[in-house]
Amino acid sequence: MGRLKWVLVFCICGFVTFGQNHSVTKVDDKKSENLASLAKVWGFLKYYHPNVAKGNFNWDEQLIQMIPKVEQAQNKDDLSRIYLEWIAALGVVKECKSCKETSKEKSFDKNFDLSWINNSIIFTSELSHKLKYIEENRFRGENYYVTKSSVGNIKVRNEINYTDFDYPDQNHRLLSLFRYWNTVEYFFPYKYLTDQNWDSVLIEMIPKFKNANDALEYQLLMQETVVKLDDTHASFYSDKNFDFFGRKYIPAFSNVIEDKVVIAGFYNDSLAKLNDIKKGDIIEEVDGKSALEIMSERKKYVNGSNNNTKAKNYDYFIFNGSTDSVKVKIRRDNLIFVKTIKRYSGIDFQPKGLYNKEKFNVDQNNIAYINLDNLEMKDQNIIMQKINKTKGLIIDFRNYPDFMPYLIARRLIKEDKEYARLIEPDLTFPGKFNWKKTKVLDPIKNEYYAGKVVVLVNEETQSMAEYCTMFLQTGDNVVTIGSQTAGADGDISRIEFLTFKSAISGLGVFYPDGTPTQRVGVKVDILVRPTIKGIQEGRDELLEKAKEYLVK
User: What architecture does CATH give domain 360-551?
Assistant: First the structure.
């Protein structure tokens, strides 16, 4: 065959192959689009349709049966017919005369979005009208699948418990994703704040969950999905993931400081000394790979509401492994050297952190210091009486206390002060949230502390610690010093895929003026972050700044 003929054959074959691949891609995209619509319709009916919300159906099994039907739908007429027949089989939806929208004054609607119901590209007008009718005549009773805790966040209940589902079949993997996605869709107060639109997360993850090749890939995908919430409370654990990233770690922890991975403290002083690890060591490479490059590669698995919080959470993903040691390139005092550091199981490791762990002291300048990590509730009255005549007070909240220090905060104000506004899920209209009554702090009469007060915060200040900081900040003479906090405020709610559980921030927390705390953290008046030099010298730079402020 001549050269020209070979070229023509090659071109024709290539064109045919391209056409086939392009056709397959279009089919796969159509299936994913159909499945995304199924996820939304299934979740909507779960919480809105009166007969479904009462628990009258095995709703997981209903989804499993619908998946192959929906995947094969060729156009919106086919798809809409499948959904209309399904809805008809669920029984009559009676008119609901009490289903009026919550007044705008009480309702928080930034998360609410049922606009997909009217998507004329995917659904026929008949189906859109049917779904809209169900919304307007939605279930108003005690939902079978979700209720509220005493504080107002959701509690998922009555879901089928699956065993030995480390790697379920394809349809159950999709069920796992759809269950999790819809819980977030309707009951996560901060859905509107995520970097990636929640709808696009669904579209992205459907083919990944479908095509997961093994248990590890499937479980890593769940972790990746959880991280997309951009919520420090949203964490994920599985044994396979733990094995993948490694159960052994070095006796020190790191943080990202001045755009470098830096040893910030020790889990075990003696083991750190034995391995010649020093605070302030800059980690350039781990097993021959750039530490910053490792961070970039594993970013999708690291949870956190903001970069300041994620910076400390990378530690586990950089140094952990299954081997007994790791080769690390270190920069110390302008010297660069490579050394082998032993890894340990960590059974006896206790984080010691950077900072002062005293309960209470008064220094030579008559400045008092309280560490809420070590304080007990019963200590509050005694300590506040002791420091009543001090010039200033430092309250260290770079930790997670065991109690809320109301008795301290109430001594910092002369009159009632509002300190927070909260939103909670509206179970009568899933996807909407209601404002709760503004939180108010009242003073303890004749116990007013007149000195200046500094509250210390950083990325370790999370959840209850952030909430407590907010009511301490109502104090008449309070200044907050430190760095961005964890940005995860509000009691957590436990939610699940199948078998595997995670969490979300369950309540929305705002300052009285409506300023959010989620992702951004609490308000900080004077920004101070530790420096590499300060860590190397063993200094607590935030505490130093606080004392300097109070002395002046």
Answer: Alpha-Beta Complex (3.90)
